[in-house]
Amino acid sequence: MNAFEILDGIYYAGVNDRVTSLFEGLWPLPYGVSYNAYVVKGDKTALMDSVNISMVNHLLTLLGTERIDYLVVHHMEPDHSGAIPELCHKFPEMKIVCNAKAAQMIRGFYGVDCPDRFITVKEGDTLDLGGGKLLRFYMTPMVHWPETMMTWMEDQRLLFSGDAFGSFGAVDGNPLDTISTDWSIRKMEMRRYYAAIVAKYSRPVQAALAKLKGLPVEYIASTHGPVWHERASQVVKIYDEMSSGKTRQGVVIAYGSMYGNTSAVAEIAARRLEERGIREIRVYDAGRADLSRILADIWKYKGLLIASPTYSMNIFPPVEALVKALEVRELKDRVTGVFGSYAWASAAARLLTERLTAMGLPPVSTVSMQLAMNDETAAEVKNLADMMADKILSSEA
Ligand SMILES: Cc1cc2nc3c(=O)[nH]c(=O)nc-3n(C[C@H](O)[C@H](O)[C@H](O)COP(=O)(O)O)c2cc1C
Ligand SMILES: [Fe+2]
Ligand SMILES: [Fe+2]
Question: Distance between CA 101 and CA 76 in Å, rounded?
Answer without folding.
Answer: 9
